[in-house]
Structure formats: structure tokens, C-alpha cells
């Protein structure tokens, strides 16, 4: 059953052929576009290590990333635009589906130009950084957290060590036991862990404390995996296909879960600050070398600065990290004022605006 009963009219509308067809299109589009996967360089791991070595030796250069062949998504983009027009006028529910269709069209446009000079501008249409109180909050956090103290020394465990019960791999295996999710090692992944369709990927050869592993498990499983699994039980299709900005808001809630568990501290704060600053500077047109040098000037070590710049610069300037702290502010403020909204996040892929529309029954009485 839905997390809050929806009026009969909402569910009846959601089951009409137009809405069902739009849901199928949105699911297909997301699986075909795969913007984050496509923006990941094929040689990410090797090039990242090479860059850290060369920058450490004083030989500064930009990355030489390689990408898979760019997709041709013109037909899919046209279908998404047509679906948005067809469904967008059918009340608040139709508008929610239309907004998601247009968001995916923007992602498709970006996917078509990965690795080119046009990519950064296309990505900026999807991962916006426009003046707002939440952006101001993100900037203030980044400015403070960039100097956060490192965590106290503790035993470190290799992320992909399957023989170590305290490794991230084994921690994720335990957390996903009984769930329709597998744990995979993915060498070129930028993040320590990331969720995909039916899997949680971990980056190998990283070292984490047990506390860091707990934080990552909380973020990925409770923040991302469990809501997507619970969405499959919901009657309303929007919970499964996702509303516009739901992926961004999901990151904000995952960070809020970290904060609530007392795990958003020290080294994690420095990491998030670096990522925000790097992505923000890429959005402002800074080149790779400028981003790295700016982070080093802020007291970050070469390896961490290069790592953050590589992540922001993937695809030619994805800079998705600019939404994390902004989304944390958005979600934290919304949940403080309207605590009942979090229940919608627990059961599916919704943004703050979509959660409010669900609570209001999409205008049906």
C-alpha cells in the first residue's frame, strides 16, 4: 500500500494507458541514458593514479580521459519531449511525470556530448547551481568544513578485502543479505560506493575505518537501496520511476542520515567540502589545473585535490557534486518544517516538491 493513501482518482489516472506508457518510457530512458556511467572514463583508475604521481612530482597536467562511444539518443529525446507535452496538462500528477521526462531529456542531451567541449554546459542544465538560500548554506558549510580536523587514527581495512569481516565489501554483503541487490567491485568507479540497478558497486584498493564503512553502508543502503526496493510495493508509479530532482534530493537525505547518526564529521566534512568547491569551480568555467591548485591552496594534499578534481571533471565537467550540500540544506529544512515528508522518501524516489504533491493527493479531493 502507498505510504499515505492516495485518492482513488490519483490511482485511476495513474493506471490509464497514457500514464502507464509514460512510466515505461521513463524506465527505458533511464536505463538507456545512464549519464553517470557514461561520464565515467574508461581509464579512470589508471589516469587518476598517474595524475596523482605526476602532480606530486611537480609535473602538473590535465587528465587524458577516454570514454566509450557516445550514444545517439535523438529518437529517445523526441519521445521524452512528446510525452511531456501529452501528459503535462493532466493535473499535478501529469506535471510531475512531465517534469521527470524533461529532466531525462536534458540528461540524454548531455550523454550525447560526453568528452566534448559542450558537455560542461549541458551538464550545468541538469546539475544547476543557481543563487538560493540553500546554495548559500552549502557554500558556508564548504568554507568551514574544508579545514575540518581529520578523524582520530584507527585501524584501516581495504575496501575490497573479502577475507576481512570489517571491510566495506563484507559490511555491504551483510547489509544487503536478503535484498535483491548484489555487491560488485568496480575499478573505474569514482565514489567509494555507488548504487546502480540491482547492485552496489565499491571501488577497490581504498582504505576505510570501521566507522567510515558504517557511514557508507548507511548512506548507500538506507539512503538509496531500501527506498528503491520499497518503491516496488507502492501503487503510485511515480515512486518507482522517480520525480524530477528525486535523485538529488535522495543524496541530500542520505547525508542527513549520516548527520543524524553522528557520522558526518571530520574527514567526511573535508571530503564533501572539497567536492563542492571543485564542482562549483568547474561550473564557473575553471580548468582542471585551476581546480587542483585552488584546492591545494586551501590546504588539501595533492592526492585529495586531484581526486576531487577528477570527480568533478569527469565527462568533461559533470560537476554533479555541486548538488550534494545544497540538497542536504533543502531536505534538512523541509523535514524540520514538515517531518511527515520523510515518509515519502523512505518509500520511493521523490523530491521535496513531489512529496508535498503526494501528501496533497495531487489536487484530488
Give a short synopsis of this structure.
The protein is mostly helical and 365 residues long. It is built from 18 helices and 5 strands.
Q: What characteristics describe this protein?
A:
365 residues, mainly alpha, three-stranded mixed β-sheet, two-stranded antiparallel ribbon, 18 helices
Summarize the structure in words.
This protein has 365 residues and is mainly alpha-helical. It has one domain. Helix content is 59%, strand content 4%. The protein has 18 helices and five strands. The protein has helices spanning 8-14, 17-33, 35-39, 44-56, 74-88, 91-111, 119-126, 133-145, 168-176, 210-231, 238-241, 246-260, 266-283, 288-297, 302-313, 324-337, 342-346, 352-359; strands spanning 157-158, 182-185, 193-196, 199-202, 207-208. The strands form two sheets. It has a three-stranded mixed beta sheet with strand order 2-4-3, covered by helices on one side. It has a two-stranded antiparallel sheet with strand order 1-5. A hairpin with a 2-residue loop joins strand 3 and strand 4. Helix 5 packs antiparallel against helix 6, helix 8 (133-145) crosses helix 13 and helix 12 (246-260) crosses helix 16. The radius of gyration is 20 Å and the shape is globular. The two termini are 19 Å apart. 45% of the residues are buried. The model has no long low-confidence stretch (mean pLDDT 96).
